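TL;DR need structure tokens for one chain.
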Amino acid sequence: MSGYQNYSNAGQGYVQQDSFSSDNTGGFKKPSNHTLRPVTIKQLLSVQQTQADGDFRIDNVSLGSVTLIGCVRNVNKQSTHQTFQIEDGTGTIDAKRFPSEEEDPAEIAAVDIGTYVRVVGVLKQLNSRFMLTIFSIRPIQNFDELTYHTLEVIYVHVNSTKSKSSGLGGMNMPSSASQFNNQYTHHNAGASGSADFMATKILETIRNNPGNQIGVHRDAIIRPVAAATGADPQTVGDLIESMILDGFLYTGEDENHILAMNE
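>> reply
TL;DR here they are.
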């Protein structure tokens, strides 16, 4: 899909990105590490910082530039800059844009309240409040880009955390329920009910709702799976979370709506 960066090194939690070397951000200093990471707003609002002036970190990986997709909820235009309030279903953040000679005026004019946009920028903190300084903001032309971005976020997060916690060099994402079952029978052998049977039922419940682009609500998954397997709802909910972290499921319209990877 056009407009995407090369995430071939996403297993390290970032990609090399040297296209933001010029400074048009109103005096803000850009990060020294020229990297680009796909994120959600919730991740940005939950960043770690080891010291007062240290780098922001996600999954213990230092942040460079970030990219996200969200809906513009408010626009505040000033003579020197514009501030956009961006919401992506996981949170809301203000994003400040300073004029640049390199931008497309028609593309910027198309960014208005209710527009879904891709934002590239850097995270800043001012008076304990997080915000983005924008390098690029443009309307998305195809909503497949939103789904693809969500998958990129999952891939980078899982690959980063797995490579640190279990020593894996990268994430081998299984492509079918049977491969998932093999993994979760091993890792969740003590769960109420059979983990592989629960995994199958979770996937079946989601995939039996064809054409549902926003996802299936968690409660609509947990109730029938708990009834079919005899497991308690908390166990099913925990397994859904594990499947999301391992890249078998991902969130749709918001964190309560779940979609499954295609087989």
